[in-house]
Design a protein that fits this description.
The chain has helices at residues 22-31, 44-47, 50-57, 68-74, 76-82, 93-101, 107-114, 127-131, 133-144, 170-180, 215-226, 254-265, 307-314, 330-340, 381-397, and strands at residues 8-13, 35-40, 85-91, 118-123, 148-149, 153-156, 162-166, 190-195, 200-201, 207-208, 230-235, 246-250, 270-273, 280-282, 301-303, 319-326, 345-350, 362-369, 373-380. It is of the alpha/beta class. The protein folds into two domains: 8-180, Flavin prenyltransferase-like (Rossmann fold, 3-Layer(aba) Sandwich), CATH 3.40.50.1950; 190-397, Rossmann fold. An eight-stranded mixed β-sheet has the order 12-11-8-13-16-17-18-19, sandwiched between helices. Strand 1, helix 1 and strand 2 (35-40) form a beta-alpha-beta unit. The radius of gyration is 24 Å and the shape is elongated. The mean pLDDT is 95. The structure holds ligand PMT. Residues 196, 212-216, 254, 273-277, 279, 304, 306-308, 322-325, 337, 341, 349, 351, 357-359 line the site of ligand PMT.
Length: 398
């Protein structure tokens, strides 16, 4: 699996003859495991039909800022939040001027303005337009703002001119996209992450568990890999694909998770406890299926071992980040856990909300450590995980 695996990419297409190459780019991004949504400007649709891109991506193509139907399905703000990166290929001189000025007069410029993800622009235009000081100034300003520019190739142009302005070949664009998410900020570090729920058997048929899907923990594993770390992911039962380059240890019960994690952290620098560990288990697991005898049934429960507390105490050099799943007084309860569990930091999320927390694709949280409380605004778990990687790297490397 490539580093584009499970990344959500908006492919923005503006109106130039090179728009025909965008179909190939969409296909290759998907070959690399990315999820692709397409936004086309009005003039792009003069060069290539939205149907082509819809057929290639299996998703409706977004074209209108003010279409109530499209906004109801996935509005411009949702699209901006959804994307880990926006690739605009080809990008016209007009689009780059609008991006530089921050105008938001169509869907693509609006989504770029609303996005906190990475923006990559692959310009294509006539060589004289490319060389104009106005175009070059726009390019310089965009670069200074952290927007990656995939400089056009030199050669014969559709208009017959020769010079710089040809869209880079799709394979070169895809190669660049493969490195967009690599930061190296945690290179050489060993990270252990727990994810998903644990299950505590009641009898051979039933168990106690919770709603964790593993999405947050798996997103963290991808973000840590992109940051250059080696990652061991210790996962409860979930139906997610493990990121490539990641060592996966699958477990079921809290005891299994404790044993696997205790061993893994002995070689680690960082431990992130994102798993929703079952807090209680039945005191005695029945060896046969318990029969329904009466209307009511009681279970005798005992506390499970607190994995993160045990391991933070046993490994004082380990940088330990916990999560706090709360439904009320989120910050206050999280601060208590930070202290009681001897953590370097805790990420508090509100699991009473349907749009974040358990099982949703997005999350919103507070990063709390001894000196800071930083609000991490609502975004995809992939983007949030990358923000967390930066916060951890800042702490570790300072
Ligand atoms: O998996 P998703 O669907 O993506 O949902 C993400 C999430 C909501 C599960 C995740 O963001 C999250 O909040 N994970 C922690 C869930 C939890 O168990 O929180 P807690 O407040 O009960 O526990 C505090 C910390 O102690 C956590 O780091 C937890 O992993 C750890 N713990 C808890 C109990 C226990 N017996 N051992 C532990 O190590």
């Amino acid at each position: 699996m490539s580093s584009l695996s499970q990344k959500r990419i908006i492919l923005g297409i503006t109106g130039g003859i090179a728009a025909y190459k965008s179909a190939e780019i969409a296909r290759r991004l998907q070959d690399q495991g990315a999820e692709v949504r397409v936004i086309m400007t009005d003039s792009a649709q003069e060069f290539i039909r939205p149907l082509t891109l819809q057929a290639l991506t299996g998703k409706p193509v977004h074209t209108d800022l003010l279409d109530p139907k499209a906004e109801a399905a996935m509005g411009h703000i949702e699209l901006a939040r959804w994307a880990d990166a926006i690739l605009v290929a080809p990008a016209t001189a007009n689009f780059m001027a609008a991006l530089n000025q921050g105008t938001a007069n169509d869907l693509l410029t609006t989504v770029c303005l609303a996005s906190s993800g990475k923006i990559i622009v692959a310009p294509a235009m006539n060589q004289a337009m490319w060389s104009q000081p106005a175009s070059q100034e726009n390019i310089e300003c965009l670069k200074q703002r952290g927007i990656a520019i995939l400089e056009p190739d030199n050669g014969i142009q559709a208009c017959g001119d020769i010079g710089p302005g040809r869209l880079q070949q799709p394979e070169a664009i895809i190669e660049h996209m493969g490195s967009v998410f690599d930061s190296g900020i945690l290179s050489g570090k060993q990270v252990v992450i727990t994810a998903g729920p644990t299950r505590e058997a009641i009898d051979p048929v039933r168990y106690i568990s919770n709603h964790s899907s593993g999405k947050m923990g798996y997103a963290l594993a991808s973000a840590m890999l992109d940051a250059g770390a080696s990652v061991t992911l210790i996962s409860g039962p979930v139906s997610l694909q493990c990121p490539d380059r990641c060592e996966l240890i699958s477990v079921v019960s809290t005891d299994d998770m404790l044993a696997a994690t205790a061993q893994a952290v002995t070689k680690a620098d960082i431990f992130i406890s994102a798993a929703a560990v079952a807090d209680y288990r039945v005191t005695e697991v029945a060896s046969q299926k318990i029969k329904k005898k009466s209307d009511k049934m009681s279970l005798n429960l005992s506390k499970t071992p607190d994995i993160v507390s045990i391991l933070s105490k046993d490994n004082p050099k380990l940088f330990v980040v916990g999560f706090a799943a709360e439904t009320d007084r989120v910050e206050a309860y999280a601060r208590k856990k930070l202290e009681q569990k001897h953590l370097n930091a805790i990420i508090a999320n509100d699991v009473s909300r349907n749009d974040i927390g358990f099982n949703s694709d997005d999350n919103e949280a507070l990063w709390i450590d001894a000196n800071n409380c930083k609000a991490l605004s609502k975004k995809s778990k992939t983007q949030l995980a990358r923000e967390i990687a930066v916060l951890i790297a800042n702490e570790i490397n300072h």
